[in-house]
Amino acid sequence: MPPAPLPLSNRSLRTTDSPISFFIQKAIETPGIISFAAGLVDAETLPAADVATAVADIMADPAAARAALQYGSTQGLPALREKVLRHVCDADGIAPRDLNLTADDVVLTTGSQQILYILGEVLFDPGDIVITEAPSYFVYHDCLTSHGADVRAVPMDSGGMDLDALDALLARLAETGDLKRVKLIYTVDYFQNPTGLSLTADRRPRLVEIAKKYSTTHRILILEDAAYRELRYDGPDLPSVKRYDPANEFVVYTSTFSKPCSPGLKTGYSILPRDLVTPVCNLKGSHDFGSSNLAQHILNRLMETGAYHRHVETLQRAYRLKRDAMVKALGSEFANWPGVKWTVPGGGLYVWLTFPSYIDTGKDGPLIGRAVDAGVLYVPGQFGHVPDAAGVVPKNEVRLSFGVATPEQILEGVRRLRRACRGLER
Ligand code: PMP
């Protein structure tokens, strides 16, 4: 007799393995493949020596060692909360008090992924509306599905989220009486995963204005996911959206040490509207009553000694070369194919490649198998989209990550991708 079925919750039944796990697994099992799939950081650039020094320094001091090896607090190490707040405000050219902020408004989490999930627990009931960019961060979609959120996507152009389209969507939702279900607007506003595009400077204050305008019965919050802000290769930094939230009411700013330092330390940080801190910490308490205290002490030390800032500069140089290699390779391989276009990101880890609409890059289409046979892997762009009102998902896009491969492998991988397309052109 087979056992009776597990009594799984609706949440569990809604939650499946991320579709991109398949591509990451494929990259691991296929020898010689050049993977543009995983958004991993380059293993060659991980700060092993800096971390070794930080750990040795902490362990050599009995008081510091005891503090780091003990449980910490749910909200996170105060010294590190102070430092990340100053770090973000420095980048914005302001002082924390200009935005009415203190370290009490900062929460440290197990990667920024944890705040993405916990905010959902804090804010959404099934059926609540979350507005994202089209396309958006694949794994956040999985998180929203798990929460039973109703996801509406707003188109992007080269300047990031199309704010006229956002305004129009919110106006329609107001008309149909659905505004009460709108909880959050999610933007990956620096070198977006997956497109590499950033929200332009002039759209940043306007985004806050739009959220305010429709916050009639409750606040519609903005989740500003700045995970890639520090991986910037050209041009000046852009002010955060948070910068335009002077009373700290509308914007949750979240970022991570995973991309600019080490994903293994799995530490993220968020600046939250003050009245959101307690609900977030209460739920985080149920998850883990605090993220790795040792990781927080290590990062605190790396920031204190300047090692962190030096490391970010090294990364910027290394990834700039890879970005250049990918853009150059795409230019040589795809320029003579009309209708093919790609983004040229000023930072981050991703290029978004768009084929003519007759090319199906999807997981069941012809290109993916040919690409694997040619020895290159990408992530189908379809995973970044939710179906539009007509149920349609674009299937002619791919995300190419240039984080892991060397510049030489990037050139070869793009050549292989072009080869995989032979015979599919019209
Ligand atoms: N946001 C974005 C846009 C990401 O790409 C990622 C990682 N791929 C995360 C958040 C979460 O990363 P972590 O939990 O390691 O901070």
Fold and architecture overview:
The protein has about 425 residues and is of the alpha/beta class. It folds into 2 domains: about 10-45 and about 310-420, Aspartate Aminotransferase, domain 1 (Alpha-Beta Complex); about 70-305, Aspartate Aminotransferase, domain 2 (3-Layer(aba) Sandwich), CATH 3.40.640. Helices cover about 40% and strands about 15% of the residues. The protein has helices spanning about 10-15, 20-30, 50-60, 60-70, 80-90, 110-125, 140-145, 165-175, 205-215, 275-285, 295-305, 305-335, 365-375, 405-420, and strands spanning about 35, 105-110, 130-135, 150-155, 160, 180-185, 220-225, 250-255, 265-270, 340, 350-355, 375, 380, 395-400. Strands 2-9-8-7-6-3-4-5 form an 8-stranded mixed beta sheet, sandwiched between helices. Strands 10-11-14-13 form a 4-stranded antiparallel beta sheet, with helices on one face. Strands 1-12 form a two-stranded parallel sheet. Helix 9 links the parallel strand 6 and strand 7. The mean pLDDT is about 95. 4'-deoxy-4'-aminopyridoxal-5'-phosphate binds next to helix 6.
